[in-house]
């Protein structure tokens, strides 16, 4: 009997001690978690939320947004809906929520802002037939288009930003249709972003692998010197390095002067403000990530493996391909993933070194947030970027699976 | 042994890493086909360097190495057809055991079917057929070393080199593996060059042992010769235990020499390069010395004070201080029941001249 109680006591004491430890560990981590949440996770979530939020109409015109959903979208809406619009308009103007609404509606239909402002200015205090009164202010109110826009603006949350980010929209008859060709920029931009990132990743791998090999295999003194050459650019400001390339690559720049002086070309080569400039700049800036990722794995590979392979009769090339290379794959995978994902979000370098056809998706997101103030579309584009990044993470994980390649 | 038609020959081989100091100097070594030769010596004496020159990972700066009559100096390692077992096994971590063992066959273009049977046979030989599908990380150290052995033997190399292959294993496992390696050597008729700094291992496994010191072979001989008849003081001190009392040569006479130790005259077999009046060192195994010897052919007698007695199971170690000449160790077998003299008492210690040698002291440093 006493034995059992003893054991129960001990188990209880053990559990209590464990719980105390767990509480203490959690308490220590709380500041960090809070910091992460406030500075990192919350802003991202809020930006992504912008991609589906559509609060402007319901905030500015609560009556209209409650009633316009009942309209079937054909002909003109009922008099009650027109009356609701007319009733909400002065209130919106007074509360200051008309401005944001006008900007929002302008994303749907260009010139909607001027239509709304004009209507607000000329609206009569009372009318018997609001539809006629509105049509008298501007004949566009006699067509279904502006009403359809108002109806879409009343849907919250909305899929419209997410569709716009994929060059699509909901057509007049419902159903998703492609946006007109002159407005379709985002799918191309995503494709371009992936392509540039893939090429940059490939170039980084081609240049970085041999450098990493040298770093891992040179005598310590020389390896240290080489490491400095890799690390110093890594520490230098991104902007400084990008502008340095700008100076080097421009038509009258160092590289072209050298090429002309040596007689390799007669005309300056177009090295900047085009794809070449973007690739050179991004490869140079992302190369250290690739080198360091591969180096960290190579450093752990004992030289006896190569010796063993040679002693077993493998030609040095065969030994390298079959014994050394496979052991470096985790580093190659990590480096490629790192460079690719960083490249996906690149902004300054393509903006400064690229030309008209080289915008990457981050630049378009920046235009939406800084110039267009279209935070909804920026949020939707960002959401896609995050989503694609996650997809690539899983693909990478499957291909050079981090767990599968962890030996020993 | 096999001097007429040696299989491996080092002639006047020297190696320097920095162009100033030779870590291997003037090395002459002949190894016969089927022989098991160990390279034994303290750390830094050049054993690994010698082995690496034979494997082709280091190039000799002087001299010539040949294998089966072919000059090896300029032949790259992968063309030498020499099997090698490394201290840390060097099994390829990303390949399975079967793939590891098949590697030397597949780089030689052996057909898949034949690879399979030979791999199976090799793993059978090291008694590990059940691990073929596993990865090296999932095996114990001893198992990994056996796989490394199978991999080094599967392509039937002319010569097998092992650099401290058992260094990372515990004592019991090491003994088992010593036996395994010996068995394979005997059954397959291998020629083995084996580097170790464990002298027990070298003495029990080898046909001949080359004792390295300071980049030179001090003596190469069969284990019993090395133990019984060391050529110089370094070998005498390095192999087994030795009572290396220092003194001066007093007499040289037809293969025998005498030296003076603490007022007593000691006679023994003469080593090389002795001169009357020159310093000399005694080479005497602790088990050959007797306490309070009877009269008879025990000509060498010295007296001292018993310092300490240690019980070692099958024998006692008795430490005796001779007059001003430090420690002298005796191993007294635990067979007789007569009482040992207590510490502090004066005793006489004696041994036969035929059981000791008088050698020149090792070079200073
Ligand atoms: N790659 C190298 N570069 C310069 N010196 C070296 C190199 N390898 C070995 N040495 C030196 O050569 C000498 C002999 O080394 P070696 O490795 O042959 O010794 P060893 O007998 O195998 O010793 P251990 O029992 O410790 O393995 C040592 O003094 C060592 O410092
Ligand atoms: Mg060594």
Briefly note the structural class of the backbone of chain B. alpha+beta
**Integer count of domains of chain B:** 2
**Outline of chain A, from the CA principal axes?**
extended
Helices of chain A, by number, come to: 19
For the secondary structure, the number of strands of chain B is: 20
At CATH level 3, the topology of the largest domain in chain A is MetI-like fold
Mean pLDDT of chain A: 89
CATH third-tier fold name of the largest domain in chain B: Rossmann fold
Q: Biggest interface, which chains?
A: A-B, 22 and 29 residues
β-strand number of chain A: 2
- What is the string of helix and strand elements of chain A? HHHHHHHHHEEHHHHHHHHHH
Oligomer category: heterodimer
CA radius of gyration of chain A is 31 Å
The helix count of chain B comes to 8
Question: Could you give the order of the helices and strands of chain B?
Answer: EEEHEEEHHHEHEHEEHHEEEEEEEEEE
CATH class of the largest domain in chain A: Mainly Alpha
Question: According to CATH, what is the class of the largest domain in chain B?
Answer: Alpha Beta
Can you identify the CATH superfamily of the largest domain in chain B? P-loop containing nucleotide triphosphate hydrolases
Q: Gap between N and C termini of chain B, in Å? A: 33 Å
The helix fraction of chain A, in percent, is over 70%
């Amino acid at each position: 009997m006493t034995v059992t109680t003893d054991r129960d006591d001990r188990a209880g004491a053990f559990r209590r001690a464990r719980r105390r430890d767990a509480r203490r560990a959690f308490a220590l981590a709380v500041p960090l978690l809070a910091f992460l949440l406030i500075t990192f996770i919350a802003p991202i979530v809020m930006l992504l939320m912008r991609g589906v939020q559509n609060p402007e109409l319901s905030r500015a015109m609560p009556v209209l947004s409650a009633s316009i959903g009942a309209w079937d979208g054909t002909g003109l809406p009922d008099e009650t809906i027109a009356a609701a619009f007319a009733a909400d308009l002065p209130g919106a103007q007074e509360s200051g929520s008309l401005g944001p609404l006008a900007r929002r509606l302008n994303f749907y239909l260009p010139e909607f802002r001027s239509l709304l402002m004009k209507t607000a200015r000329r609206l009569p205090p009372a009318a018997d037939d609001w539809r006629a009164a509105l049509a008298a202010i501007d004949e566009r109110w006699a067509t279904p288009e502006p009403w359809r826009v108002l109806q879409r603006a009343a849907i919250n949350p909305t899929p419209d930003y997410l569709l716009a980010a994929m060059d699509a929209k909901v057509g007049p008859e419902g159903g998703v249709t492609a946006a007109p060709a002159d407005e379709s920029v985002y799918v191309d931009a995503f494709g371009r972003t992936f392509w540039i990132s893939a090429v940059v990743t490939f170039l980084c791998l081609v240049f970085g692998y041999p450098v990493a090999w040298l770093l891992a295999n040179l005598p310590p003194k020389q390896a240290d010197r080489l490491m400095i050459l890799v690390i110093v650019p890594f520490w230098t400001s991104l902007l400084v390095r990008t502008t340095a390339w700008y100076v080097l690559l421009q038509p009258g720049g160092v590289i072209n002067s050298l090429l002309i002086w040596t007689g390799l070309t007669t005309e300056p080569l177009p090295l900047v403000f085009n794809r070449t400039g973007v690739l050179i700049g991004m490869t140079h800036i992302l190369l250290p990530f690739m080198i360091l990722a591969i180096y960290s794995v190579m450093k752990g590979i004992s030289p006896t493996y190569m010796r063993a392979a040679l002693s077993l009769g493998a030609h040095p090339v065969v030994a390298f391909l079959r014994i050394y290379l496979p052991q470096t794959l985790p580093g190659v995978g990590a480096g490629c993933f790192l460079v690719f994902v960083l490249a996906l979000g690149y902004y300054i370098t393509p903006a400064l070194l690229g030309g008209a056809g080289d915008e990457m998706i981050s630049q378009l997101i920046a235009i939406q947030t800084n110039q267009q103030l279209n935070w909804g579309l920026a949020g939707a584009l960002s959401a896609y970027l995050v989503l694609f990044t996650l997809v690539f993470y899983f693909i990478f994980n499957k291909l050079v699976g981090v767990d599968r390649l962890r030996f020993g | 042994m096999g001097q007429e038609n040696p299989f491996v020959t080092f002639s006047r081989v020297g190696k320097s890493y920095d162009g100033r100091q030779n870590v291997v100097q003037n090395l002459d070594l002949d190894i016969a086909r089927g022989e098991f030769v160990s390279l034994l010596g303290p750390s830094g004496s050049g054993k690994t360097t010698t082995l690496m020159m034979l494997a082709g990972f280091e190039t000799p700066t002087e001299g010539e190495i040949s294998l089966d009559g072919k000059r090896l100096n300029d032949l790259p390692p992968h063309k030498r057809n020499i099997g090698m077992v490394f201290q840390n096994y060097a099994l390829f971590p990303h390949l399975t055991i079967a793939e590891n063992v098949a590697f030397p066959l597949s780089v030689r273009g052996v057909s898949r079917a034949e690879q399979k049977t030979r791999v199976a046979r090799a793993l059978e030989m090291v008694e590990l057929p059940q691990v073929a599908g596993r990865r090296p990380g999932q095996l114990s150290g001893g198992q990994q070393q056996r796989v490394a052995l199978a991999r080094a033997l599967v392509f039937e190399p002319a010569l097998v080199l092992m650099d401290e292959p058992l260094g990372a294993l515990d004592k019991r496992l090491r003994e088992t593996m010593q036996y395994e390696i010996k068995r394979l050597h005997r059954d397959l008729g291998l020629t083995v060059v084996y580097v170790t700094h464990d002298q027990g291992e070298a003495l029990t496994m080898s046909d001949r042992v080359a004792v390295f010191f300071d980049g030179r072979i001090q003596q190469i001989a069969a284990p019993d010769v090395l133990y019984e008849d060391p050529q110089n003081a370094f070998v005498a001190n390095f192999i087994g235990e030795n009572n290396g009392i220092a003194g001066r040569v007093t007499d040289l006479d037809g293969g025998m020499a005498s030296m003076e130790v603490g007022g007593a005259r000691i006679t023994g077999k003469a080593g090389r390069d002795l001169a009357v009046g020159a310093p000399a060192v005694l080479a005497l195994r602790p088990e050959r010395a007797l306490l309070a010897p009877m009269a008879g052919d025990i000509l060498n007698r010295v007296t001292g004070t018993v310092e300490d007695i240690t019980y070692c199971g099958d024998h006692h170690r008795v430490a005796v201080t001779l007059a001003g000449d430090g420690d002298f160790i005796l191993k007294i077998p635990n067979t007789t029941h007569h009482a040992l003299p207590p510490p502090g008492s004066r005793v006489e210690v004696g041994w036969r001249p035929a059981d000791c040698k008088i050698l020149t002291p090792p070079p200073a440093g």
